[in-house]
Amino acid sequence: MFRQNKKHLQTNLFSLQNSLPKTLQNEILNSEEYAFYELIFCNICEEDFSVLYSDIPSRPNSSVNCLVSALILKQKFNWTYQQLFKSIKFDILTKTALGIYNLGEVPFDESTMYNFQNRLVSYYVETGISLLEQIFDNLTAEQLKQLKLKTDIQRTDSVMASSNIRSYSRTQLLIEVIQRLWRMLDQDDQELYKSEFAHYINKTSGQYIYKLNVDDISNELEKISVLYHFCKHNILPKYKDKDFAKIFERVYNENFTEVESKIEVKDSKELNSSCLQSPDDVDATYRQKRGMGYRGQSINIVETASKENPINLITDISVNPNNIDDAQVLNQRLDKMKAKTPDLNELHADGAYGNPDVDEKCDKHDIELIQTAIRGNMSDVPIEIVELFEGNYQVNCPLQSVESEISGKRFKCYFNNEICNTCPNLNKCPASTRKRGMVYSFTHGDYLRNKRLVRVLSLPPEKRKIRANVEATMKEFAYRMPNKKLKVRGACKANHFAFLTGIAINFGRIYRFKSSKPAKPAIKVTKVAVSFWLFVQSKKKLQIIIDYLKYWEFTKIFL
């Protein structure tokens, strides 16, 4: 049964914090942990998590704001679970961040934390909704409002987030799946099929592969294919409801094909980057980037970038298979980005984010996509397309300008042959030779692309470097991923990592901004001020002596 945590709103007069000296109490109030309590803990909407609990009257849940805040602190300080629980039990500042006032109070135990995360994963798998994403969006919206940050200019980039899995070769992966299928069988079936599996169950997949020569791999694949075919038709029907049976069937369909009731091994060229990379992470995909291979997901980040902002915050996060192009990710996220920050009109990105679909979507939302680099080759002859009014364009080349004509679904413009013949770049010109002259054909999409390509050239030099600072944000994520490898597996847990880290990064920026406000100017000390202070101090001492003598004379009467 769901119940909100309002206990932290009622402070304890005899709490541990109140029992400390005044100086230490002030240090707690000025600490980062107390700021976390005010900015994050108190603003977590616990109602969003009520869907994880039963509606039937039963034992109430542990404090959701404590659980979520603990996960954020874990990402912020890059703690292990052991370090997290130790801090919750014994560290005063951590208790302060979680709204706990008694030293002996522990808001939840370790099993509760793990069960809570399992509930989050199950809900994500069932509905596709990330509750931590909702927390991130709500907190960020309030932070942008309170700090009055401008969101008209933003920047984006992505970082590879490899899954915490072993890197398998194709043959080793097939053997590993066979071995795990064997462990899934009940004892009777293991006795029944022991002879079929005997060749692979006495060694690990790594040990088995180690003794194979390169020339033996093709023959080994043929042997494995026979066993896979046997398992598919004789064993799998009995275990079809098991989770691993689905993994086995996926590997079977990706690597083998049946031709006239015979199995054949697919050529390695037929395999794609979405094939299973490991039985431990069914969501991981494969991608090569700058000569390195990654198995896992990618995290795309968008943050504010206006120079008028005292700080910039992350506004949008998405986790995607790493074999999806950045431009495709941006095309999917633009609607949400515009909904969250309606005044967005300028987005800075690198060369991977531009394509015709993105151009159309940006045009729809009145967003100017500014690329710091261009993917592909540029034309040797600069051609500029200018829209005069809807459906009418002017095409400019170095020697002449011509208005376009509608020709079916495309636009055409005809250049003067006499002028073209004098052009030194005639052989490199993208226009084609026709009877009427040199003709240049294009679509509205070509106009949008041309507009994107030349847009960065119209910016002042200092504004062309706006995108570069997003690399610092990428490093803040990468810092928590040694060798760009997550400590978790699966798309859902990668999603949770990304949003918890995003909340922690935004909070860190806000705290550093607020704590770095300039101190009050010191009072200028002059000789007059020093003399006056000494005069006051001497008067105080004289008055103390007079009062003492009066008291002594008074007491002598009664002696």
Please give a handful of descriptors for the protein shown.
6-stranded mixed sheet, single chain, 15% strand, 559 residues, 4-stranded antiparallel sheet, alpha+beta, disordered C terminus, 15 strands, 44% helix
Report low-confidence residues grouped into runs of 5 or more. 519-525, 554-559
Number of strands: 15
Q: Estimate the mean pLDDT confidence.
A: 86
Distance between the termini: 76 Å
Q: From the helix content, strand content and strand pairing, which structural class follows?
A: alpha+beta
Helix segment tally = 20
Strand content is 15-25%
SSE topology sketch:
Elements: H1 22-29, H2 32-39, H3 64-76, H4 81-90, H5 92-97, H6 110-127, H7 131-147, E1 153-162, H8 170-184, H9 187-192, H10 194-197, H11 205-210, H12 217-234, H13 243-255, E2 256-259, E3 262-265, E4 285-289, E5 292-304, E6 314-321, H14 326-340, E7 346-349, H15 356-364, E8 368-371, E9 384-389, E10 392-396, E11 401-403, E12 405-407, E13 410-415, H16 417-421, E14 432-434, E15 437-442, H17 444-455, H18 470-479, H19 491-515, H20 527-556
Parallel strand pairs: 1-7, 7-8
Antiparallel strand pairs: 1-5, 2-3, 4-5, 5-6, 9-10, 10-11, 12-13, 13-15, 14-15
Helix pairs in contact: 3-19, 7-19, 8-12, 8-13, 14-15, 15-17
